[in-house]
Design goal:
It is built from five helices and two strands; from the N terminus they run αβαβααα. By secondary structure, it is mainly α. It folds into two domains: 46 residues, no CATH class; 63 residues, no CATH class. InterPro entries: UDP-glycosyltransf_plant.
Length: 132
């Protein structure tokens, strides 16, 4: 196993934690292309799957969350299409295959505070649709 040095990148300090992480990973993607044989990624580093695909090396997503969170993440693209309002505006429960009906207030914070216009929404959808 080897490590690669990447340049320091400056980001706007007013970004949310989720936006910062997503942008940080996105900005580093071009700098790791020459130094990898495979990528083992946290689920929030899913944009790096494209780097692995471009390089022709395997990528593996490590998810340390529960199977319930995995079920929710995999179902986010469907929810994004079906739920046309913000989660805090949903009447009734949110249906996710493999889980009991979820009241909107029980959704994990990233999903509950997810707004259809937020930059993090596209990141969540990308993570959920990654074919790793």
């Amino acid at each position: 196993m080897a490590t690669a040095r990447t340049p320091l990148l400056s980001l706007r300090p007013q970004l949310s934690v989720e936006e910062f992480i997503a942008r940080y990973i996105q900005l580093h993607a071009p700098h790791v292309r020459d130094a990898v044989a495979a990528l083992v990624l946290d689920m929030f580093a899913a944009p790096m799957v494209d780097v692995a695909r471009d390089l022709g090396v395997p990528s593996y997503v490590f998810m340390s969350s529960t199977s319930a969170m995995l079920a929710l993440m995999l179902h986010l693209p469907v929810l994004h299409e079906r739920v046309t309002v913000e989660f805090d505006e949903v009447d009734g429960n949110v249906d996710v295959p493999g889980l009991p009906p979820l009241p909107p207030e029980s959704m994990p914070c990233r999903a509950r505070w997810w707004t259809r216009r937020a930059p993090t929404t596209r990141v969540c959808i990308t993570i959920s649709m990654s074919g790793t």
